[in-house]
Amino acid sequence: MQETSLTGQCAVCSASSARRCSKCRKVSYCSEEHQNIDWKSHKNHCHPPSGTIVNVSAILFPANETQPRLVSVKCTVEREIDDDDDTVIYHADFEPFLGKTSIGRQLITNIGYDGVELEHPISCYIRDNFLNDGSPLNQSIVKLMNGRAPHKWSGNVLAMKQVDLYSGKLLKASMSDLPTIAEYFKWYPKEISPEDMNEEITRLFGKNAKGVKVVTL
Fold it and tell me: From start to end of the chain, where are the E strands?
């Protein structure tokens, strides 16, 4: 969608245009057709001004229900540096879904334990002390995993999608993300053996890494 603005140049054809993207209000287009053409490139940089409230789709795993569902999470946009898209942060309001408590996060970066790396990581937000604060066992995860999840997820769990691993920007999640999250629930928490740890050290530091060792407690 577009809104009227000061005259600028269309991002596609450079024609004079008095309409701009209604979300970020930064890029001009002469027509809806050209906005659609540019969307694949523009969407990764299209973020509203600092202080704007936006709604972002997330997957809620309700503790007392048997089915996960999509919810809309209110997020406040912050730009640490004006006109620098790399400093955009979305501050999500977790309280309606997780309660008034400290929030923990489990980051999903791969499909399964060591499968294909995700283009857009997924963060599962939880009540930080859910194992000790009386939160009920999460029935939607129990059903999704047929009772085979090794971790006793309790309380609500909220899954949100990031632009990339280091970004504070969020994308809309969809139910198509559910299988990836289920793969995470299938293996977490997996104990890392000394052999696996040594392989990771070699990957990070090379075969001739010195002064790095695994201490097993």
Answer: 2-9, 16-21, 53-61, 69-79, 88-92, 103-110, 117-127, 157-162, 170-171
